[in-house]
Amino acid sequence: MEATLIAPCGMNCGICMAYLRKKNKCPGCANVDPYLRSYRRRCVIRNCETIKSNQSGFCYECADFPCKRLKQLDKRYTTKYHMSMLENLEMIKNQGIAALLTREEEKWKCPECGGVISCHNGICYTCGSEKLKNRKKILGWEDE
Predict the structure, then answer these.
(1) Which of 114, 99, 102, 109 is nearest to 140 (CA)?
(2) Closest to 15 measured CA to CA, from 127, 121, 141
(3) Which of 49, 101, 115, 127 is the most exposed place for a label (fewest CB within 10 A)?
């Protein structure tokens, strides 16, 4: 887990399948690469002028935090992927980015090889031993 992979919205790009895949790998939302996929270049949150002007580069410094767009994104990710951008941002604000990275490393670590499990599909892109159908068990989501 790397601090440079935490997006302004609080997304940990290090657990995103677009970052973890080998082909057409995304460099992460916080990356200033002009060759980012068009939907990442057009991201309303990533391009927010307030975020660009604040000291940390994270949404939590904004007077409108959390904005409507961030709330919608967080609701979708909390429901579908069991991760919360708002929770991540609160942790960064209150405990620092190192605390978030430690928690994320523990939460998304593959029990088979120690690689990273994608939040989007529950698959470890290092060993490939985790299957989508087992993600609930592996990540402790059996109650669904």
Answers:
(1) 109
(2) 121
(3) 49
CA distance 110 to 117: 6
- Measured between alpha carbons, how far is 123 from 31 in angstroms, rounded to an integer? 24
Rounded to whole angstroms, the Cα distance separating 14 from 138 reads: 18
In the DSSP assignment, the letter for residue 60 is G
SS3 assignment, position 124:
strand
- Give the count of beta carbons closer than 10 Å to the beta carbon of residue 77: 21
Distance from the first to the final alpha carbon of the chain: 28
pLDDT digits (tens, 9 = 90+) for 42-59: 676 766 766 666 667 888
pLDDT band at 139 (very low <50, low <70, confident <90, very high): low
**Residues 45-72, buried b or exposed e (16+ Cβ, 10 A)?**
bbebeebeebeeebbbbbeebbbeebee
- Give the separation between CA 104 and CA 66, rounded to whole angstroms: 21
CA neighbours closer than 13 Å in the CB half-sphere of residue 15: 28
CA separation for the pair 25, 36 (Å, rounded):
10
- pTM given for the model: 0.79
